[in-house]
From TrEMBL:
Residues 1-32, 343-362 are annotated as: Disordered. It comes from Enterocloster hominis (ex Liu et al. 2021). The lineage of its organism: Bacteria, Bacillati, Bacillota, Clostridia, Lachnospirales. Residues 57-239 form the Band domain. HflC and HflK may interact to form a multimeric complex. This is Protein HflK. NCBIfam families: hflK (TIGR01933). Belongs to the band 7/mec-2 family. HflK subfamily.
Length: 362
């Protein structure tokens, strides 16, 4: 069966069969699916995305303050060298750990999340941690600062969710046990060093037994004082007095160390001088004895000659420095020894007048 369509503009008649609309509908249904090019693009994009994810997961970097535990099929290994490292994506897992020393505050805090108004400039005391009892049954507030670091990275990773609570609970236990062995005066003044060392030793040994991958670096007392202000002031006065005593002792020791060597040096010098003088006198005495013995031996042989020789030798020693003035009472004076004329003239003008006046005064 055929239909006729007439074009009103040019009165052209077209013939069209009834099967033509059915063919058009069939073509329309066939073209309604997803084009093959679009499906391929989505697959490529997904592959690129997966490759990018795997590429970013195939390496990691470590700083100087970090180390890593690399787990491969459940088997851990440690990587401590800094820099760029590669790993197998999806198979190897990397956990980074800090090498730095970490601190823990016990008895006080500077963290505003633990206490309202806390800061580095304004630490806030936590009395439930700091209040303790001493050996002489006194209450005292003691603040500690515990420093720890990683000693076994693999164990540290295994205990990364519980190590802080373990260290804190053990530290508080050993701190209270140790403070309870000392009197309150020692805790505030002279016993701090012993307490710190004892707590550090006990806590270190216990962490080795627990094997959580962390060790103690240092334990220090930040502050200690009495809960009541009046008692605290009294103990501070005692501590100030002890510090004053130590200052005076140190000053005395300094003076002692400065002056004792000087005094010892002067004493050594005097001893050396006395020894030298002693030796000199001994040598002189030995010389005189030897000379006397020689003279005595000569005297035994020739007594008269020896006497005269000794007399002359003695006069030779005495007369050069001796001036003898003889006054016979008549005004005539004689001076011995006789000197040259010039010296005699000077002597008579300068020396004879006062010496001659002596008899007149008598």
């Amino acid at each position: 069966m055929k239909k006729k369509n007439q074009n009103e503009a040019d009165n052209v008649v077209y013939e069209q069969t009834e099967d033509a609309p059915k063919k058009k509908k069939a073509k329309a249904k066939k073209g309604g699916g997803v084009p093959r090019n679009i499906g391929k693009g989505v697959g490529i994009a997904a592959a690129v995305l997966v490759a990018a994810v795997l590429a970013f997961d195939s390496y990691y970097t470590l700083s100087e303050e970090e180390m890593a535990v690399v787990t491969t099929f459940g088997k851990p290994s440690v990587q401590e060298a800094s820099g760029l490292h590669f790993k197998v994506p999806l198979i190897q897992q990397v956990t980074k750990i800090s090498k730095a020393i970490t601190g823990m505050q016990i008895g006080y805090t500077t963290d505003p999340e633990r206490a309202e108004g806390a800061s580095m400039e304004n630490p806030v005391s936590i009395e439930k941690e700091s209040l303790m009892i001493t050996n002489d049954f006194n209450l005292i507030n003691v603040d500690f600062y515990v420093e720890y670091m990683v000693t076994d990275p693999i164990q540290a990773v295994r205990h990364r969710n519980v190590y802080e609570s373990i260290i804190k609970n053990l530290a508080q236990s050993y701190i209270r046990d140790t403070v309870g062995l000392y009197n309150v005066d020692d805790v505030i003044t002279t016993g701090k060093t012993q307490i710190q060392e004892r707590v550090k030793e006990q806590l270190t040994n216990r962490l080795v037994e627990e094997n959580i991958g962390y060790g103690i670096y240092n334990v220090s007392i930040q502050d200690s004082g009495m809960p009541r202000e009046d008692v605290s002031n009294a103990f501070k006065a005692v501590e100030d007095a002890k510090q004053g005593m130590e200052t005076a002792i140190n000053t005395a020791k300094k003076y002692q160390s400065e002056n004792i060597p000087k005094a010892n040096a002067e004493a050594d010098k005097l001893l050396q001088e006395a020894e030298a003088y002693k030796q000199q006198r001994i040598n002189e005495a030995n010389g005189q004895v030897a000379r006397f013995e020689d003279t005595y031996a000569e005297y035994v042989k020739y007594p008269l000659i020896t006497k005269k020789r000794m007399f002359y030798e003695t006069m030779e020693e005495l007369l050069p420095d001796l001036k003898v003035i003889i006054d016979n009472g008549s005004g005539t004076q004689t001076m011995l020894p006789l000197e040259p004329f010039a010296n005699v003239t000077e002597g008579t003008s300068g020396n004879q007048t006062p010496q001659a006046a002596a008899p007149a005064g008598q």
